[in-house]
Design brief:
- The complex is a heterodimer of chains A (95) and B (492).
- With 95 residues, chain A is mainly alpha-helical.
- Chain A has a domain at 5-43.
- In chain A, 35% of the residues lie in helices and 4% in strands.
- Chain A is built from 3 helices and 2 strands.
- In chain A, helix 1 (5-14) packs across helix 2.
- Chain A starts with a helix and ends in a 7-residue tail after the last strand.
- In chain A, 15% of the residues are buried.
- By secondary structure, chain B is an alpha/beta fold.
- Chain B has a single domain (2-262, 400-491), classed as Amidase signature (AS) domain (Amidase signature (AS) enzymes), CATH 3.90.1300.10.
- Chain B has helices spanning 2-5, 9-17, 23-36, 48-63, 105-112, 160-167, 184-190, 224-234, 278-293, 309-324, 342-353, 356-369, 375-395, 421-425, 432-437, 466-480, 487-491, and strands spanning 43-46, 74-78, 116-121, 173-177, 193-196, 217-221, 264-268, 297-301, 401-405, 441-448, 454-461.
- Chain B is globular and about 65 Å long.
- Classes of the chains: A mainly alpha (95), B alpha/beta (492).
- Chains A and B meet through helix 1 and helix 2 of A and helix 10, helix 11, helix 12 and helix 13 of B.
Chain lengths: 95, 492
């Protein structure tokens, strides 16, 4: 199904990527072309096929549910664009 | 000192072992080569101080008789592996200034084996690309050129910097990652060996994630034996990656017996694609003959869902990428652009930080996972993935290994195929099915096009049977007698 500008604007909002209005039409064309290409999968009858969600057949290992790390706040904050009083700082979310 | 950069890893280990040269001399020779070949743009960050310090420590260990499996060997690290205290960019603007406070498991294992880091190799942004043209740090130039044609060619991607560095004799080997062909395709374009191990063979911990059910780290090297040496150092179980396999790592070098008598080699008929150049078809037939001459038995097999592998991949990989790349939000690391609200800050940061191809994939991925479309796209692709795996499982009941071309073309010029995303995606037609099935695959340089560019053949093996893949690859390598070198090396 081809995407229109409104649909692309909606997807971009879900993905939190700002797309200027002037670029929506071109992007809609590119994305529609890719979707049209992948829609070929519809020709295959997969009604009796299980979806593959794990690549290698193995069961996940368990470990005790205990803290294995910690006490490295400053190392974690070292790469942050903005910090305040030992926290990550972001624009105000509550008025 | 050109001689030192031209050694194989195996020969360098022997030379270091008998004291013909030191790890420091080996590192210095490579650092000089790096400097002389900066026009290739193979590295985003060079780490000469670290290289020399590691080399000196390596020499000290060797003097004490404590040499590891890669003791003193200088390597390049794809800039997708987090390296403690060293800028890690993933080829993206959005990771501006990111210096990891931890080391990826694979690189930690390499340092433990004695390897020496020369620098962080350039790549397509977030490993999304087949040309290295999507890197924020600019394209990498392939050290090879067409005969009589001076135009720069792409090295392939996404591990393009890694492949170019190894081919141009700037490093003895390099790490790569392969989500849909990102080790094997650039290896083929640059005339070197590239191995994607079985999913789960190498830990993914500390590697910037693209598509977590497909990503796998592996070596790029100039010989099959070197790839075996390096895989042995990279592989193994890691409790920090729950998908890493708790299986013993065989001695891959010891598996290179050269004896493939009686081995059954599958030739998948669906890999004879429309429009494939005659010289690739001929090289493939030549490869079959080489293996037959060595005592193997070629058997035609069918992988009927091959034609659906690329569309399946271009649903699953973007879906996983859109989820993995959600973490780049301008809060904890990297680039941040100002915004009036939290959402405006996210949207501005991600718009400025991601390149066009990454945005395309994140948007496709977001769409195929969104309410109302999940079943039609994502679930459908997962069902196709089951069928693609089943094709391989059925084939491996009759054969031990599969032989195919590595790529549908040789290296192309920078700028070609750039305006049509799907034309670029077709580069990975022979490599993508292997990732979907989680199997090991290797690209071996096997011949040259009429205008002098390298072409690779691919071998695909059973899950966790890298040993057989490497053994057959070495037989191909021996038969092919690939001795051609890129112009960059000839001119130095």
């Amino acid at each position: 199904m081809p995407l229109d500008k409104t649909a692309v604007a909606h997807i971009a909002a879900l993905a939190r990527i700002e797309v200027p209005d002037a670029e929506l039409a071109a992007l809609a064309g590119e994305l529609s072309q890719i979707l049209h290409w992948v829609e070929r999968l519809a020709e295959v009858d997969t009604s009796a096929v299980e979806p593959m969600s794990s690549v290698v057949k193995m069961s996940l290992k368990r470990r005790p549910d205990v803290v294995t790390d910690g006490g490295i706040r400053d190392r974690i904050l070292a790469n942050a664009p903005e910090t305040a009083q030992g926290f990550f700082a972001v624009p105000k979310v509550i008025e | 000192m050109g001689g030192l950069t031209d050694l194989t890893m195996a020969a360098a280990l022997a030379g270091l072992g008998r004291g013909a040269f030191s790890a420091r001399e080996l590192a210095e020779a490579h650092l000089r080569a790096l400097e002389a070949a900066r026009h290739l743009n193979a590295f985003i960050t060079e780490t000469p101080e670290r290289a020399l310090a590691q080399a000196e420590a390596s020499d000290a260990r060797r003097r004490k008789g404590e040499a590891g499996a890669m003791e003193g060997l200088p390597v390049a690290i794809k800039d997708l592996f987090c390296t403690e205290g060293v800028l890690t960019t993933a080829g993206s603007h959005i990771l501006d200034g990111f210096v990891p406070p931890y080391e990826s498991t694979v690189t930690a294992k390499l340092w433990r084996a004695g390897a020496v880091m020369l620098g962080k190799a350039n790549l397509d942004e977030f490993a999304m690309g087949s040309s290295n043209m999507t890197s924020y740090y600019g394209p990498v130039e392939n050290p090879w050129k067409r005969r009589g044609d001076n135009r720069p060619l792409v090295p392939g991607g996404s591990s393009g910097g890694s492949a170019a560095a190894v081919a141009a004799r700037l490093a003895l080997g390099a790490t790569g990652t392969d989500t849909g062909g990102s080790i094997r395709q650039p290896a083929s374009f640059c005339g070197i060996v590239g191995l994607k191990p079985t999913y789960g063979r190498c830990s993914r911990w500390g590697i910037v994630a693209f598509a977590s059910s497909l990503d796998q780290a592996g070596p790029l090297a100039r010989t099959v034996e070197d790839a075996a040496i390096m895989l042995g150092a990279m592989a193994g179980h890691d409790p920090k990656d729950s998908t890493s396999a708790d299986l013993p790592v065989p001695d891959y070098r010891a598996a290179l017996s050269g004896d493939i008598r009686g081995l059954r080699v599958g030739i998948p008929k669906e890999y004879r694609v429309d429009g494939m150049p005659a010289e690739i078809e001929a090289l493939w037939a030549q490869g079959v003959d080489w293996l037959k001459d060595a005592g193997a038995e070629p058997i035609e097999v069918s992988l009927p869902h091959t034609q659906y592998a690329l569309p399946t991949y271009y649903i699953i990989a973007p879906a996983e990428a859109s989820s993995n790349l959600a973490r780049y939000d301008g809060v904890r690391y990297g680039l941040r652009l100002a915004g009036d609200s939290l959402d405006a800050m996210y949207e501005a940061t991600r718009a400025a930080g991601f390149g066009a191809e990454v945005k395309r994939r994140v948007l496709i991925g977001t769409y195929v996972l969104s309410a109302g479309y999940y079943d039609a796209y994502y679930l459908k692709a997962q069902r196709l993935r089951s069928l693609i795996l089943r094709d391989f499982t059925t084939a491996f009941e009759r054969v031990d290994v599969l032989l195919t071309p590595a790529t549908p073309s040789a290296a192309f010029a920078a700028g070609e195929k750039m305006d049509d995303p799907i034309a670029m995606y077709l580069n990975d037609v022979f490599t993508v099915p292997v990732n979907l099935a989680g199997l090991p695959g290797i690209s071996v340089p096997a011949g040259l096009t009429a205008d002098g560019l390298p072409l690779g053949l691919q071998l695909i093996g059973r899950a966790f049977d890298e040993a057989t893949v490497l053994k057959v690859a070495q037989v191909l390598e021996t038969a092919a007698e690939f001795t051609a070198r890129p112009v960059t090396v000839l001119n130095v």
